[in-house]
């Protein structure tokens, strides 16, 4: 079986040119470990859809329809990056009634290192593995990951029938070998090639690019271990830049009528739903449990008509669950955001989690003075606030909360940092009525500042990323795709 992986990305150009880019073909294996990597530009504020197709290549034809389809999976780039250790495992599908296997996708932020390494390796007195000959040796290079596992980064050619091979020199970017960290562990395995793909292990050794580079104009000599050892844990100097994000969602909602902004049409989304979907589909990839507390604010609730500015959209009783979002007996009240911000701030204890508060309203804030003070106080917390105004109301006064040009202040105190992004949704609605395009424009604008806000808070407090959790190794040799 000869396997090949095709990757594609929709919506933005990358090295997988507008779409399809194949890996190399790996012969005779059901556990391929592909060498080719895809370099993608990552945009936190955009939903970058990916698709991976796996094929069994039976001929040299470039026409993919000539090959056997083995399965596919879909995900977003954010899902991979947001996964623990940047490692996402997905089940392949696409063939009814058949188990198609598992694909493992890993992502790592590339360093700015532009160094190129050129090296040539040789070996002496390797083990004889072939019954009627010597050995057909080749080398496999792996770079260590932040969770202690290894990812393949280079294979040499096979040298036939020799115990003293001299491989051709090759050139590799240093960031592909160790992501620019000269002291990161590099593992090299030596194999005897077999036609059926069951290559015999000869030995292994570990080194680093710093050590390899010392061999310039002279030889580095490594003794290789002849027995395959269990997976080791290696000390890695690169820090895993991953913080847990927790999202909080607050919505101003009232009973819906066909003429209302809150009307739930069976045929299309209203502005509230579009804003929720636009932002939620992106930030969910960075939330650990993907569960979002959702509250309404600014409504008179039954049975007593009491005004609440922070009430759960789902109310549980002894015998049933009621949704205030669909409760036609609720009445709209004025817009106050102070209780909302205070409720969210009360849940924050330290910087181990970063909170994103999304507020959607169709009314102008009536407690602006108190809200400004709450924003100034919240600027010292691990919190970002997104406010989306929907409908025709005049939101000019609310622009004051967005501190891009002038930092929010209250009672002579300036906010420690800019944490608020306010936008009126009407500025992003596509004139042709394309809701997908409208949502993409909104999400791109309101989420663009979140990564810098998160990092600025963590760095100002000296909070370092958590160590990556070790992942369970895959069977046999193969670790990553």
UniProtKB/TrEMBL annotation:
GO function term, MF aspect, one: metal ion binding
The source's domain of life comes to Eukaryota
Q: Where is the C2 domain?
A: 84-222
PROSITE patterns recorded? C2
One family from Pfam that matches here is Copine
Q: Which GO terms describe its biological process?
A: cellular response to calcium ion
- Gene Ontology cellular-component terms listed: plasma membrane
Under the heading InterPro entries, the entry gives: C2_dom, C2_domain_sf, C2B_Copine, Copine, Copine_C, vWFA_dom_sf
Q: Which UniProt keywords apply?
A: Calcium, Metal-binding, Repeat
According to the record, the residues making up region (Disordered) are 1-22
Concerning Gene3D superfamilies, the annotation shows:
C2 domain
| Residues spanning the membrane | none
Entry's family note: Belongs to the copine family.
Instruction: State the protein's name.
Output: Copine family member 9
